Amino acid sequence: ESVNVPAMAAFAALPVEQRAHILSSKTEYRAIYAELKDAAIPVSRETGLLLYMLARNAKASSIVEFGTSFGISTLHLAAALRDNGGGKLITTEFEPSKAQRARDNLSAGGLLDLVEIREGDALETLRGGLPDQIDLLLLDGAKGLYADVLALVENRLRPGALIVADNADYCAEYVAKVRDPEGGYLSLPLPGDVELSMKRG
Ligand SMILES: C[S@@+](CC[C@H](N)C(=O)[O-])C[C@H]1O[C@@H](n2cnc3c(N)ncnc32)[C@H](O)[C@@H]1O
């Protein structure tokens, strides 16, 4: 279904239902994020801390992230990899200037060697070349694509792997999937509009 994407100021002034409709679009996401290309729109401080704590506790060495932006969540996750003794984080971003800012931030933090930034649409960049075992997945790109991105990586998630989905209120299809008792996951909502899920097995 096609939706009309207004400029950022106009977007902010829209009623909440209309904003949700636009954000959840599976077709107009490129235009939405082009409007937001100079905006960091990072995870909250609390969600960043949560990511670091979960990755440490899971002893993660293999992490995948959908939606890099300026790399705030990436810094938290890569710091956890470093403190776990090393590993690899694959993250993906389709706005080239954002990928560059993330690279600069990771470099300033001394963490770039742990991170592979795949430039392009996650639906392409995460289609192949994934590690055999993924310990943690962060979903923070276009809200309408969470279920599709999960489908691309799910056979690589190890039993017990954690998935953190930010802005879950805009991701009805995804939330229904991870909460389905037959769907292969355990899942619960956390404060801050985060859905935390675990691959069963
Ligand atoms: C909410 S921001 C990510 C914030 C980041 N996780 C942080 O905490 O700093 C979402 C980002 O995902 C990117 N994005 C959205 N859909 C994408 C897609 N299909 N493929 C690649 N990047 C995408 C957008 O350009 C935007 O920079």
Automatic annotation (TrEMBL):
Keyword entries, A-Z: Methyltransferase, S-adenosyl-L-methionine, Signal, Transferase
Secreted as UniProt keyword: no
InterPro entries associated with the record: SAM-dependent_MTases_sf (IPR029063), SAM_O-MeTrfase (IPR002935)
MF terms in GO: O-methyltransferase activity
Pfam families in UniProt: Methyltransf_24
One record GO biological process: methylation
Protein name (database record): O-methyltransferase
Organism per entry: Massilia eburnea
